[in-house]
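Anyone up for a design puzzle?
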């Protein structure tokens, strides 16, 4: 069932982004009276799952879900229709249109991607608002388990004061800035110190099975008792909070392992908070120092237990457009920083580049419209930015040549554009193979 939910979200998001991106090319092409021969969701190599001709355009769904396309008459694209290009230009063809019209047609796809992302952020802000946590309310620091961080001297209980010398006020600030971090200022019982991250920090993180950074410390909230647990028959309920072991207070779940190891194969007494009342239960610790209890907990639990200063913001309809714009700018600038690191081999960030499997893994196991739309907005930005890269075969490559034509007044020859398209196509295929190869490598060897 989890697979069905994840793949449904993945395909729905991908289909939505592809159709709207291609509509961004299709609409201005039609406005400028340019013939559009095909409009396809997914690729129709050899055959189509569905197709229907309406007017001069064939609309269809291909069988290979790696993208989609519109085939515009008289345009040198991935179809490499040399037969058509060998004919005299016709007034309804792309190549016969003024450069400024061709530029608008080529920029239409990424324009729609950016507008879509902005609109989603605005509507999600209006519908769900925002939830954040003030950093100064995290009195006992963060939970740190990633060995890359612990090897640098960071440990559970450390507080984050600043990233790259810029103070952080909320938990979202930390999550937003950590990708571009070069230094982190932390505070613990020994004082304040600055941790300088290695240049290949992102590369090391990509190689690691653990992608966690600074995690919130949660109480020991009971989710369920496993069937093989020695405590299966004990009166334990979902949302029970274990607050003490043998009379000693237990505030965070990350303290459980060290507390229980010396008590292996023993019976312990625990205090449990249930419906604002404290009750006591006897529990068995197995020979591995475990209770056989699956922990749970979410922000609602943290809020009801008054662990942190949780900020909830709601926005009016018109106010949400300003909030959505700020989120859009934050995401697009953050993704720009990530790309810069990816294209710098010394950072090792390229190891984290993933393909369709990586995108699939982003979606949660349970259906959440809030998460779905948030992920779709980010993917829309990613699709827009990547399409603007000056690589022939991408929109950015066509835009590059059109800008040259507009500035110089000279149109590149069709022969040159055909060769550039071939080169761009091989670059694009190489990038796709590399990204999806990373997915395969991680799946097999990690």
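Challenge accepted. My sequence:
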């Amino acid at each position: 069932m989890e697979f069905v939910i994840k793949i449904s979200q993945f395909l729905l998001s991908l289909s939505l982004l592809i159709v709207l991106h291609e509509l961004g090319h299709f609409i201005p092409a039609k406005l400028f009276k340019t013939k559009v021969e095909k409009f396809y969701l997914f690729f129709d190599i050899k055959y189509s799952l569905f197709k229907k001709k309406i007017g001069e355009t064939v609309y269809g769904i291909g069988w290979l879900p790696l993208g989609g396309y519109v085939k515009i008459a008289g345009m040198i694209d991935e179809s490499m229709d040399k037969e058509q290009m060998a004919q005299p230009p016709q007034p309804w063809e792309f190549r016969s249109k003024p450069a400024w019209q061709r530029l608008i047609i080529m920029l239409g796809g990424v324009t729609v991607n950016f507008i879509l992302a902005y609109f989603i952020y605005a509507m999600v802000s209006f519908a769900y608002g925002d939830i954040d946590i003030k950093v100064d309310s995290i009195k006992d620091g963060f939970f740190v388990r990633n060995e890359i961080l612990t090897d640098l001297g960071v440990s559970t209980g450390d507080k984050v004061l600043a990233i790259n010398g810029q103070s952080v006020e909320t938990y979202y600030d930390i999550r937003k800035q950590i990708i571009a971090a070069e230094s982190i200022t932390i505070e613990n019982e020994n004082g304040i110190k600055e941790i300088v991250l290695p240049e290949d920090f992102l590369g090391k993180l990509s190689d690691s099975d653990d992608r966690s950074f600074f995690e919130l410390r949660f109480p020991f909230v009971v989710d369920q008792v496993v069937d093989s647990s020695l405590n299966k028959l004990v009166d334990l309920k979902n949302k029970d909070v274990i607050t003490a072991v043998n009379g000693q207070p237990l505030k965070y779940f990350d303290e459980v392992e060290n507390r229980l190891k010396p008590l292996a194969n023993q019976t312990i007494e625990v205090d449990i908070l249930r419906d604002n009342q404290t009750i006591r239960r006897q529990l068995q610790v197995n020979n591995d120092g475990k209770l056989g209890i699956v922990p749970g907990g979410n922000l609602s639990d943290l809020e009801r237990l008054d662990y942190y200063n949780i900020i909830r913001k709601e926005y009016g309809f018109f106010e949400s457009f300003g909030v959505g714009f700020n989120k859009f700018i934050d995401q697009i600038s953050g993704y720009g920083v990530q790309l810069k690191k990816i294209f710098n081999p010394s950072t090792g960030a390229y190891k984290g580049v993933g393909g369709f499997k990586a995108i699939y893994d982003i979606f949660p196991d349970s259906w959440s419209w809030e998460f779905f739309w948030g992920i779709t907005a980010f993917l829309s930005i990613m699709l827009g930015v990547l399409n603007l890269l000056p690589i022939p075969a991408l929109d950015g490559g066509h835009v590059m040549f059109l800008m040259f034509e507009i500035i110089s007044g000279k149109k590149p020859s069709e022969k040159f554009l055909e060769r550039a398209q071939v080169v761009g196509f091989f670059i694009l295929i190489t990038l796709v193979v590399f990204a999806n190869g990373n997915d395969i490598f991680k799946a097999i060897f990690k």
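A detail worth pointing out: The chain has three domains: 2-126+370-445, 135-216, 220-296.
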